[in-house]
Design brief:
The chain has twelve helices and seven strands. By secondary structure, the chain is α/β, with parallel strands linked by helices. α1 crosses α9, α2 crosses α9 and α7 packs across α10. The structure holds zinc ion (2 copies). One zinc ion (ZN) binds next to α12.
Length: 305
């Protein structure tokens, strides 16, 4: 009988191609818990820390919340809260929110829900329609990502969080790195790798950045997390999906390459300077190099402000 490479007793349930290791159920769960704990480190997992977690109801955000709850539960004066953004995507988002809310109730995590409508006066569906009316051929994910990020930041800021935790996994980060490389967008690449230090920005952390998507999913299934697996109705339009396919092909032929893309990027980004946004947006007061921030730029293009 084949046995787990770690405990040498149990039957393996997962073969990790890049390391050649076989894991049984228990050893796999332990491995993920240990790896994510190490990613965060003692500087983050400590007393007097409040973390806002962006929760979509998908497997990544809920696995992140499951792990953070376990790490912070025994630590005095520390706190985790769930931050949920309702983008206003007919049907899809409500189902995700319901699952995220059920999760928070089950694990006794305080949660807050803010909507695109409350913050900018429009749902994402309405923004997409508006873009069509104006013949703006931009990807809905671009609008959505920029606005969602802003809302999550302000939700975390309002509640005095020390960190904003985002459930991006290894695949997500590798895709973002490659997209910026391909576009030659060095500024975005630096922002991806370095935290902007500004009183109006809550420092972002990505606890799952070294865990491949397939392992996040396996972990969710093994520990019995119920998650929203329906893809966003706008996601098929995304350029990111094409990059994802290319990276999956690369990983299949050369196991470990997603990890080396992210690790190499993190080494590189240390040498790149972070330009400080000294001026502020004349519409909303947020920091911005050009005098108009990304959110207001979108709203202006759509004639919303
Ligand atoms: Zn084992
Ligand atoms: Zn602005």
């Amino acid at each position: 009988m084949e046995v787990c490479s770690i405990c040498k007793e149990e039957e393996p349930i997962y073969y990790q191609r890049h390391s050649g290791l076989k894991f049984c159920r228990e050893c796999f769960i332990k491995y993920i818990k240990k790896k994510v704990r190490k990613t965060l480190g003692k500087k983050i997992i400590k007393q007097n820390v409040k973390i806002g977690m962006g929760l979509s109801g998908g497997k990544d955000s809920l696995v992140m919340a499951y792990l953070l709850r376990e790490y912070y539960d025994p630590i005095p004066n520390s706190e985790i809260i769930g931050l949920i953004v309702d983008e206003g995507i007919e049907g899809f988002r409500k189902r995700g929110i319901k699952i995220a809310v059920e999760f928070c109730k089950k694990y006794d995590i305080p949660y807050y829900i803010d909507t695109f409508e409350d913050h900018i006066g429009y749902t994402l569906d309405r923004i997409v329609e508006r873009a069509k009316e104006k013949n703006i051929t931009a990807n809905p994910c671009t609008f959505c990502g920029i606005i969602r990020r802003r809302i999550l930041n302000s939700m975390a800021l309002e509640r005095s969080c020390n960190y904003l935790a985002i459930g991006h996994n290894l695949d997500d980060v590798a895709q973002a790195v490659m997209m910026n490389y391909i576009e030659g967008d060095i500024k975005k690449l630096v922002i991806l790798g370095k935290s902007i230090e500004h009183p109006k920005f809550v420092r972002r952390i990505k606890p799952l950045k070294y865990i491949p998507e397939i392992e996040v999913k396996l972990f969710a299934d093994l520990v019995g997390i119920k998650y929203h697996s329906e893809p966003c109705p706008y996601s098929s339009l995304s350029y990111r999906n094409e990059i994802s396919e290319i990276l999956n092909l690369l990983e299949k032929k050369h196991p470990g390459k997603k990890y080396s893309i992210v690790a190499g990027f993190e080494r590189l980004v240390k040498y790149l300077p972070l330009e400080k946004d000294k001026s502020i947006c004349k519409y909303c007061g947020n920091p911005s190099a050009s005098g108009i921030c990304k959110v207001c730029e979108i709203l202006r293009r759509l004639d919303i402000i």
